[in-house]
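INFO batch 0412 | record 1 of 1 | parsing
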Amino acid sequence: MAESYLSLTDHPVAAGAALMRRTESVDGRVSAGSPALEVMTDLAQVDAVRISPGASIDAAIERMKAAGVRLLFVNNPSDELIGVITSNDVEGEKPVRFQHEMGVARREVLVRDIMTPREKLDSLMLDDVQRARVGDIVATLRHLGRQHALVVEVHGGRQRVRGLFSATRIGRQLGVRLEVGETAHTFAEIGAALRS
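INFO prediction complete | emitting tokens
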């Protein structure tokens, strides 16, 4: 049985028509009460910026600058997430500490040496994010002591990273500077922070 479809009415595109931007608010600004999705980088709409674990940290810095991001997803050859690396990782004390411990030159420090592995990453469920407000996300980032939080969804019985929250981006959209510090989560990290 053949279905019948109706043709939609077509209209000319008006002079001066603008392209819609990704953010839903007209000027990109949000409030603490705005839907959290308005400040999430949605990987269904933009490509994730990736890097190989075997790349140098200097290559990571260049990739971040070229893409205008402060976090890179580290993936294996099967395109599975194995970690992330941030600008704080590559420009902070991690490379220096690794160089000292391993007796290597900076050019020998690789992404895999200082990235945050997947097992240590915090994530939020997309279902929860869809009901959350921007203020909830800020509170979550502060509670976690993180600049970034991944958003995951379950698709086909497997978890996949759907999005990313960045304190820097949220602050820019709120029109404020957000103070969200990286905090130590293990005794070893606390000890390392006290020694540095």
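INFO post-check: Strands lie at 41-42, 50-51, 71-75, 81-86, 116-117, 123-125, 148-155, 158-166.
INFO record closed
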